[in-house]
Write a structure and sequence with these properties.
The complex is a heterodimer of chains A (about 190) and B (about 260). Helix content of chain A is about 25%, strand content about 35%. Chain A starts with a strand and ends with a helix. In chain A, a hairpin with a 2-residue loop joins strand 12 and strand 13. Chain A is globular. Chain A has a single domain, classed as Class I glutamine amidotransferase (GATase) domain (Rossmann fold). With about 260 residues, chain B is α/β, with parallel strands linked by helices. Chain B has one domain: Aldolase class I (TIM Barrel, Alpha-Beta Barrel), CATH 3.20.20.70. Helix content of chain B is about 35%, strand content about 30%. In chain B, helix 1 runs parallel beside helix 2. Classes of the chains: A alpha/beta (about 190), B alpha/beta (about 260). Chains A and B meet through helix 1, strand 8, strand 9 and helix 6 of A and helix 2 and helix 3 of B.
């Protein structure tokens, strides 16, 4: 099995690469369709801002490839946010695979922005995925038709989404210790 | 609800983890990879790797160490020490760090904070602040890695906290220098003063000696986490036991 980590321009793609390596899974970092098309599954890491990630995907002609693929896709953090229609961050039109918007935490509702640290996820599809995961985000989606995991920070927001072959998590499973490993193994088992 | 973070910090000098008292007289306390691996297993919520000599000696933190630690651990990993420009930061992040922390270079060139935030996002950019109380004023110090280079910047800590937030810092680590290495408790008073005008997460640093000090700082201040070094390296406090203790005190802590 080979997992393609889509290079959207963010800097620490190696974090995800190392996490698959610890699970004995081969992964490759690439932004070429020719290479990515040979993979069994894809990861949209999205470190950076929504605007920059969409700009990179557009420059590399990856937008329709991602939208049309039938392979399992895991979007992490900004990589999940761009599955929605629109993000307030950089006023960005996103992939539009899932109806909904991404907005910024209001600092009057929360203790600090960004949300930085471990927060509790409750997954209504699979309670083995319940647990504490690591978040580092200033933007969030409140709720959607495809939200299957919820977390509270000021208010409740979408922490896991699932639609067809697309899975998204607002947290960083690659940085979420044992809970994160369980989440990644679950994704791997779905491939 | 977001949990409070317990953060061990590896203060590294010449390839070893060291401990100093009030930023002086460093002694070797352990090996980098052994300690990183131990804290990862033991339930640390994050690991900080701080090359304390890097700013002082005009160097940059060792990329090879960053890579080896990143391969080993599966918790957030912040790297500090002599990161002076975008290229340094990119190298460190590409080697597997999740966040970079800057201190003296940000004081020398505050715009660096903005450049880093624009390039990598605020969530990647931590600013470390070494603050000391002098004549009832809190003042920022720079180049604190060595007693020969340490410098009073004359900048008030409150003003610097305002400025770094405006420039896009995503987190602040406040090292209360009067408390560094002396193990008599965090500087609750200073932390509460600084937290008043802080909208980004603030991590308390300096003064941890016993488990009660963590309880005190996490219940009496709105700090997002507590950082400590020597009490963990010397096994005076075991992270898993500390977290059990804090949970029993009704502090919101990750299992």
């Amino acid at each position: 099995m080979k997992i393609g980590i889509i290079d959207c321009g963010g800097a620490n793609l190696n974090s995800i690469y190392y996490s698959f390596k610890r699970l004995n899974i081969d992964s490759f970092i690439s932004n070429s369709i020719d290479e990515l098309i040979q993979m069994d599954a894809l990861v949209l890491p999205g470190v950076g801002s929504a605007g920059k990630v969409m700009e990179t995907l557009s420059k590399k002609n990856l937008i329709s490839f991602i939208k049309e693929t039938n392979k399992p896709v895991l979007g992490i953090c900004v990589g999940m946010q761009i599955l929605f229609d629109y993000s307030e961050e950089d006023n960005t039109e996103c992939l539009g695979l899932i109806k909904g918007n991404v907005t910024k935490f209001d600092k009057n509702d929360v203790i600090a922005v960004p949300q930085m640290g471990w927060n509790k996820v409750e997954c209504k599809l699979d309670d083995t995925l319940d647990g504490y995961y690591y978040f580092a985000n200033s933007y969030f989606n409140k709720d959607s038709d495809y939200t299957v995991g919820f977390t509270s920070y000021g208010n409740q927001f979408s922490s896991i989404i699932k639609k067809d072959n697309f899975l998204g998590c607002q947290f960083h499973p690659e940085k979420s210790s044992k809970a994160g490993e369980v989440f990644l193994k679950n994704f791997i088992n779905s491939i | 609800m977001l949990t409070k973070r317990i953060i061990p910090c590896l203060d590294v000098k010449n390839g070893y983890v060291v401990k100093g008292i009030k930023f002086k007289n460093h002694e070797i306390v352990g090996s980098i990879l052994d300690l990183a691996s131990k804290y990862n297993e033991d339930g640390a919520d994050e690991l900080v790797f701080y090359d304390i000599g890097a700013s002082t000696y005009d160097g940059i933190v060792s990329k090879e160490w960053v890579k080896q630690i990143a391969e080993l651990i599966n918790i957030p990993f912040c790297v500090a020490g002599g990161i002076k420009n975008l290229k340094d930061a990119k190298d460190i992040l590409n080697n597997g760090a999740d966040k970079i922390s800057i201190n003296s270079p940000a004081l020398a060139n505050p715009n660096l904070i903005q450049e880093l935030a624009n390039e990598f996002g605020s969530q990647c950019v931590v600013v470390g602040i070494d603050s000391r109380c002098i004549d009832n004023k809190y003042i920022v110090y720079s180049n604190t890695g060595d007693e020969k280079t340490i410098k009073n910047t004359q900048i008030e800590t409150k003003a610097w906290i305002d400025q770094v937030q405006n420039l896009g810092a995503g987190e602040i680590v406040l090292n209360c220098m009067n408390k560094d290495g002396v193990r008599d408790g965090y500087d609750i008073n200073q932390l509460n003063i600084m937290l008043k005008n802080c909208d980004v997460p603030l991590i308390a640093s300096g003064g941890a000696g016993i488990e009660d000090h963590f309880k005190e700082v996490l219940s009496k201040t709105e700090s997002s986490g507590a950082l400590a070094a020597s009490v963990f390296h010397k096994d005076l406090i075991k992270i898993s036991e500390l977290k059990d203790f804090l949970r029993k005190q009704s502090i919101n802590i990750r299992y």
